[in-house]
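Problem 3 from the worked examples.
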Amino acid sequence: MLSFLFWPFIACLILTGIHTYLGLHVIRRGVIFVDLALAQMAALGATAALLFGRDLHDPAAYWASLGMTLIGAAFFSLSRSRDEKIPQEAIIGIVYVVSAAAAVIVLDRAPGGAEHIRGLLVGNILTVTPAQITKTAILYTAVGLFHWFFRKAFLLISFNPEEALRRGYRFRPWDFLFYAAFGVVVTSSVSLAGVLLVFAFLIVPALASLFLTDGIVPRLWIGWGFGTAASLLGLAASVTFDLPTGASIVCAFGLLLLLPILGRSLFRMIRPGIRATRPRGNPPKGEKA
């Protein structure tokens, strides 16, 4: 049993590693659904290849997905605006629903369309091969090195855009580079794990880390630990109760996210009582009297 789960678990670790970091950027930029939109555009590219007689795992389907994702990256980098009347999240949502509707239309003309839609949504991470994982790990390492090399600009624009503007950074070229690298990751992730699971790996660990700590490095470690625990729980539930693997891992992410949410709420409830019990005149270190 353990050998059966080994490669799916390694795939989950690889997905957790890169998506937690990108998720912190996405949440801070306030473009939560950009992952779903780019993933859906990648799925649309794959379904278009399917219509021309290609398999979803064919190299032609991958390049079609990547092409659609890069188009989305260019569009999102151009659609960023400081005009609060036109939130970018609304544009991202429109791109998502139009891409999803177009994919449904395309798959309606393809044999086995319903099964392909299910595969694109939840994937089948149990069937990953060592070759797929090796190729994905090399690709994600390259994207990680790209982000490390340009980390100063990416982190400043995501976490402190006002300071980035003051220093003269031009957002659109940097946004295109960010979304293009993000699209490369999403295209590979969707073919490996499906749209829903990729969204869970991107947003949930990053959100949990934001609940618990500050600073990019502590958040990364917490996010990686959270993603590892949710992956183990989801894989174990899938095998034990014979459940769909992708859906089980997504539900595990949701259940584990309740812990930091409830813990934070509980701490806020009891914090006034803790302060009231502290002796006056002896404030804790770091607090002003």
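Problem 4, a separate protein:
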Amino acid sequence: MSALDRLYRQVPALLMARRNLSRNRLRSGLAALGIIIGVLAIASLGMFGTTLRTGATAELGGIGNEIQISPNAEEGFERLTDRDVADIRRVTDEGEVVPIRQETATLTRGDDRTIATVYGIENPGVLYEASEGQAPERLRQGALVGSSLAERLELQVGNRITLDNESYRVVGILEEQDGISLLNPNGAVIVPLESFDESGYSQVVVRSPSGTAANETAVAVREELNDREEKVTIFELGSITEGINQFFGILNAFLIGIGSISLVVAGVAILNVMLMSTIERRQEIGVLRAVGVQKLDVVKMILAEAGLLGFVGGFLGAVLSVIAGLVLNQVVLSDPLLTFAPVNLMYIGLAVVFGIVTSVLSGLYPAWKAASERPVESLRK
């Protein structure tokens, strides 16, 4: 005896429900199709939102753990001093402090000339990695060139470039920086901090091990440097990622709401199917009631039919949702296994449960109507 047969023996209402639904396979199939579409819509739209959020987060990378500290020009502060940098280092419990000087210079290589942004950074290895050569922890000589600038000028490690009147040997080509970055070096040149004649710094970037640590550093810097006057402005990229997460949370809820409408429509279709079924089987139900079958048993039988439609539709909808998720994540993120992320499985589970609950609720009125009719009146019609 199979497990399904044992289940039917223990719950005879399921066996009757299966037989009753088999009488009109086309009508039952169409009712289940509504549930399939509803479950597929909810689960797929939920996974679609998750995929968009994952893609956006990947584009942003780990920028949520960085803050940018700049002099407040509106209050008349043009540069950050060595003392300001020392105060920032003192209040930074976790993370690396990177003071930066910046200017624009004419870059010359052979007959090629272009205007390039030049950053003076003592420790560029904290922020960047090199695709060729190396990005040292302490840059004492030579220059690092951004990827797009190096490609445009066909620069390689060992070449020499001239920035205004200073000659530098290229010691590294930086990896291309994708997405949002506080300091995008793709079209820039990084030279030792001491190469600048001026004193002071145009900005300071603090890279912390986590977004929480970056936020704590930002609070500490504000309290230390802006105690008496608004000396610096602080830009936290973590606020951008937080805003993006909130946006995609709202978008997910909106998409799931749209998908839920299809399940409500499916519920109305099941209500219609169950009503038609109970009307056609009125005399059959009357006979059951006449031989002693209780009202509750009739209600169970009708609800079992509705629940079985919801279960079958939900199961097939879940299978199709997984297939849709595999295709979506492969096309957008090139990682189909993200379909099985916990949040996506939650969407699929919720869609199946919602589909079954909708089906059972849709069967309540037909069940109550069939069970409430007197056997004599049912047999007379």
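Solution to problem 4. The two ends are 40 Å apart (CA to CA). The CA atoms of residues 153 and 207 lie 31 Å apart.
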